[in-house]
Amino acid sequence: MSNSTAATRTFLKMNSAFSLLTAAPLLFAAGMVAPMLIANPVDWAAWGLRGLGVGLVGFAAIVYSLSAYKFVSRAMVNEIVFLDIGWVIGSIVIVVFFGEILTASGTLVVGAVAVVVAFFAVSQFVSAARIEKPVPVARVVSKDGKLHATVKRTVRAPSEVVWAVMTDHPAYADVADNIAKVEVLSGDGLGMKRRCYGPKGENWEETCDLYEPGRAYGFRIHTEAEDYPYPFAELTGRWRVEAHPVGSEFHIEIVATLKGNGFSKWLFATAAKPQFKTILIDLADAWAARMEREAGTSIAAELSARQA
After folding, report:
1. Are 162 and 291 contacting, i.e. CB atoms less than 8 angstroms apart?
2. Which of 5, 31, 69, 238 could, after both became Cys, cross-link 253 (CB 3.0–4.6 A)?
3. What integer pLDDT is reported at residue 264 of this predicted model?
């Protein structure tokens, strides 16, 4: 977990739980709650409270999904803060200008809930202000039925070291959380074949279809295989390195064509975007750490050789 997001994610989880607790009596006991809150409840008051409960459940689900996202951003959190503030303002308007429709206990409940929501709004806003952007710049977008996931990261290591680490295919499993093992099946460079294994033993073959020594390589994943485990019709990856003032910068680009109809593609892309982004950021950080270690080792070895 990123230290800069830990507090924010905790407050989001608490907000989600409180929203569910607030929704429960509205959903399951609206008929009993209505006369407790409303002085002269109309016939449809119970259904109105149930509708409010449904909305709170949806809100809780959104907030919880954000709390589970390792790289939640300030902008994402502040959208929830804005909604919380809207709830507080709405509660104030009801109590101040339409207080006669509430019972004494109703006024107390509305006010108490608003105070708790205000606490979450302030806590989330303050903690979100401390969130630091991850060093890798990652972006995941859906366009024309395809998912485009990219990440780039600067690293304090020369390009030749970065290239050597990037093309150490068996060691790819040491830095990629979604890969448990990589086997080189045949070849070297363009046309090379490798087999990748997922964390649950699922596996697939990939063929190198781009190779520019010292600069870039790419793989086409054999999604047409009968035992291919993921819902992609096509999947390709590109890895590049170039010189940068701090040392080098590497880029990763994944392009996936999704299977299924329009709705299933949209649903999968929506769920997959944060996962893709998390995987790419973690991979970029882990790779950069190894590249910088390798660069440090090379420099130390060179200095030792000179002294000898």
Report:
1. yes
2. 238
3. 80
Bridge partners (DSSP) listed for residue 244: 247
Written in H, E and C, the secondary structure of 8-52 is HHHHHHHHHHHHHHHHHHHHHCHHHHHHHHECCCCCCHHHHHHHH
CA 76, distance to chain mean position in Å, is 11
Element (H, E) at 163: helix 159-166
Q: Do 98 and 145 meet the contact criterion of CB atoms below 8 Å apart?
A: no
- Rounded Cα distance between 155 and 85, Å, is 41
Which long-range CB contacts under 8 A does 170-174 form with residues at least 24 apart? 171/290, 172/196, 173/197, 174/286, 174/290
Tokens found for residue 97: 């200008």
C-beta atoms surrounding 158 within 10 Å: 18
Each residue of 45-67: pLDDT tens digit?
A: 999 999 999 999 999 999 999 99
Q: Minimum mean pLDDT among 11-15, 158-162, 269-273: which range?
A: 269-273
* Structure token digits, residue 3: 């230290």
Look at residues 215, 240, 243, 216 and name the one whose alpha carbon lies nearest to residue 158. 243
Identify whether the C-beta of residue 127 lies closer than 8 Å to the C-beta of residue 8.
Answer: yes
* pTM score: 0.71
* Average pLDDT score over residue span 264-292: 88
Q: Tell me how far apart the alpha carbons of residues 243 and 148 are, in angstroms, rounded to a whole number.
A: 24
Give the model's confidence band at 305: pLDDT under 50 very low, under 70 low, under 90 confident, else very high: low
DSSP 8-state secondary structure symbol assigned to residue 134: P
pLDDT at 79: 95
Q: Specify the DSSP class assigned to residue 101.
A: G
Q: Which tokens sit at 238?
A: 């590109």
| Nearest-angstrom CA–CA distance, 171 and 234 | 25
**pLDDT number for residue 263:** 79
